[in-house]
Amino acid sequence: MKSRLESADWLTAIARLVASSDATSAAGALADAIDAAVEHEGTCLLAFHRDAPPEVFHHTLEPAGRRHYVDRYVAGPYLLDPLYQLAVGDQKPGVCRFRDQSPDRFRSSEYYRQYCERTHLKDEMDFIVDVSANSTLVLVVGRRTRRFTKAELERLVLVEPLVHAAMRTIWQRSSASSRRQEPGGSLHQRLTRCFENFGDGLLTERERQITQLLLRGHSTKSVARELGIAPGTVMVHKRNLFAKLDITSQYELFSRFIDAL
Length: 261
Prior knowledge:
By secondary structure, this protein is α+β, with helices and mostly antiparallel strands. The chain is built from twelve helices and five strands.
């Protein structure tokens, strides 16, 4: 029996990828290649920028899915996404499983409940490649029905060089590759300032640091590790910041932040 990487669908997708002359056709061919490599329930190719909101280059979501999972996402909550943090960071893998890169309490966070849980994804693999000093492309491959098997994960890792080459080609052929940085008052910069200054005037600098980590899904122990302080100290700061913000739960903290955005 032929493997998926020997199938007619795979070879046809690769042929389309090689023959593509623009970013749109290349992105479609890459999505078809992933379809041939593994079973999944959707792909999304995004550009994460250090100086601008994310851009969606290609996706296979239905219109309703795009409105909820894409349009709302790029309006600001992406700042809480572990994938965004990974993409704009200095150290990143070429391909990874999303669940392995998330904070320890991420699935208990309000961001997860409000945005990720509604996607009904059981598993997610992400291809990540830097395409400029300020931009990184990420191809998300999602699975809703079940987790990827070991063989499927190995197959995705195997095609990493090809996927990365295709992602770089898509970037080079897109208008985004030559776009100038937005001016100082850009949406991204305003959103970033809002996140970094959330609670300013009420919270101390340390309490704001802890608030940011809590919003991103870190547990008390994880916050303590990130900041190099004792878990008990984190608990004291957490009680104090909740009192200052007049809230009693993570849900209220998340809601206050979204209102601020």
